[in-house]
Amino acid sequence: MAIFSNLTEKLQHAFAGLRKKGKLSEDDIKAALKEVQIALLEADVNYKVVKKFIKDLREKAIGKDILESLTPAQQVIKLVNEELTNLMGKEKSSIMLASNPPTIIMMCGLQGAGKSTTCAKLANFYKKQNKKVMLAACDVYRPAAIKQLQVLGESLDIPVFTLGENVDPVGIAKGAVEKARKSAMDIIIIDTAGRLHLDEQMMNELVEMKKVVHPHEILLAVDAMTGQDALNVAESFDNQLGIDGILMTKMDGDARGGAAISAKAVTGKPIKFLGTGEKITDLEVFHPERMASRILGMGDVLTLIEKAQENFDEKKAKELEEKLRNSTFTLDDFLDQMDSMKGMGSMEDLMGMIPGMNKQMKNLQVDEKQMAHNKAIIQSMTKDERKDPQIINANRRKRIAMGSGTNVQRVNVLLKQFKETQKMMKRIGQMGKGGKMPKIPGLF
Q1: Which of 76, 97, 162, 270 gives 137 a disulfide partner, CB atoms 3.0 to 4.6 angstroms apart?
Q2: Helix axes 26-42, 72-87, angle to 10 degrees
Q3: Measured at the alpha carbon of residue 432, what is the angle toward residues 426 and 437, in degrees to the nearest 5?
Q4: DSSP-based three-state secondary structure for 57
């Protein structure tokens, strides 16, 4: 499910009416803003936030500069984009790394918000930046919480500090920070205990831990699927503990996403990261201006490029460029590209980052399972078949279908799809001969 997909669709509908008119009247703008207001409320954006947002927009949108513009509809959309960006915090809010390591990050939150997994995601995020990271398991109350963090740390080759389940969490945190200093770690992320609800014991423990370890950053993990309740939780934590930022989890679970839009305005604290899926790599830095663009269906090319840079091997990219020049793109290359794309996240979200793709994606269900079937089909081919699919006759297709657990029809569809891709790659290669490979139109 694409983030904000419902809201994006409704906002685009509101703007479509404006685009049809050459000149706009005050009534036209008020009618469109009424639709925007309803769309935001249905997306679970805080009522008071929406009321002020629309009031500010109306005052600016019915000004002389907008009404007398040659492209009033575009000016209104530009204004909505700017106001949305301001509402969500104007620009990204980063975690400032300590000049004298380690940077101590304390992660808090209610039970069920995905806090431990988020700690591992954040650790992986910094490890990719060549930082030495340690995790500290301070949740001694939830059954198997320590084991969960140890398993996650092991899968990422990141050390996890623990003293067991019958030890004071504050003592564990203190020991973890001392260990991180001795081990010359750049960052230590402390996973604290959550509760099913806010209680005095929980807060006292966190306040005491804060006094002892002096964290540089206190992050609150909140579940986006709980809507406005997530912001009530954030306000409570901030009032009693003092938080530096919010990490909104499970953004893939609800296409409304209103809590993320309201967070800064309601709590005064910035969203710093978004958890966008179950995989350990599904963590995004929150950029208000990029998110506003995505919400309005204008794409998010910068994030798409960053994802591509993270997931595409530079050496393989150069090899692919050479293959395009020489028109030698094979099924093995096709398979490599599918694997790289899969590592970037869901196809639906990736398409949503490409400007103009939202309308095309509206009635298109991206079948992630089909990618798995395609991989099985290609892996069931011989080396010669992958290199030259033209030799794949009827008997070979039956054998490949049986070997991949699919059917001949699926094999035929894949071969046709590859043939079309090969033609496109050949055209791109020919365009690039004698010079630098061109950028693919409509993408980057």
Answers
A1: 162
A2: 40
A3: 110
A4: helix
Q: Which amino acid is at 295?
A: I
Closest CA to 17 of 77, 64, 70, 59: 77
Residue in the structure block whose two tokens are 């798409």: 304
Tell me the pairing of strands 133-137 and 245-249. unpaired
Which domains, from first to last, does the chain contain? 5-87 (1.20.120.140), 103-303 (3.40.50.300), 305-432 (1.10.260.30)
Question: ∠ CA 21-30-48 to the nearest 5 degrees?
Answer: 140
| pTM to 2 decimal places | 0.70
Place of tokens 């094979």: 330
Per-residue pLDDT of the chain (444 residues; tens, 9 = 90+): 456 777 888 888 888 877 777 677 888 888 888 999 998 998 888 999 999 999 998 888 877 666 666 577 777 888 888 899 999 998 888 898 999 999 999 999 998 889 999 999 999 999 999 999 999 999 998 888 999 999 999 999 999 999 977 889 999 999 999 999 999 999 999 999 988 777 888 899 999 999 999 999 999 999 988 888 888 889 999 999 999 999 999 887 765 678 888 899 889 999 999 998 888 988 989 999 888 888 887 654 555 555 555 555 556 656 656 665 666 778 887 777 666 665 555 555 555 555 444 544 444 444 557 778 888 999 999 999 988 899 999 999 999 999 999 999 999 988 988 887 777 666 655 554 444 443 433 332
Task: Report helix, strand or coil for 229.
Answer: helix
Tokens 């830095």 label which residue?
285
Residue 302 φ then ψ, to 5°? -60, -45
Instruction: Looking at 353-407, list the stretches that DSSP marks H as alpha helix, in order from N- to C-terminal side.
Output: 357-361, 368-379, 383-387, 394-404
Copy the structure tokens of residue 320. 């692919």
User: In angstroms, what CA-CA distances link 46 with 33, 53, 224, 293, 332?
Assistant: 16, 10, 13, 20, 50
Q: Which amino acid is at 149?
A: L
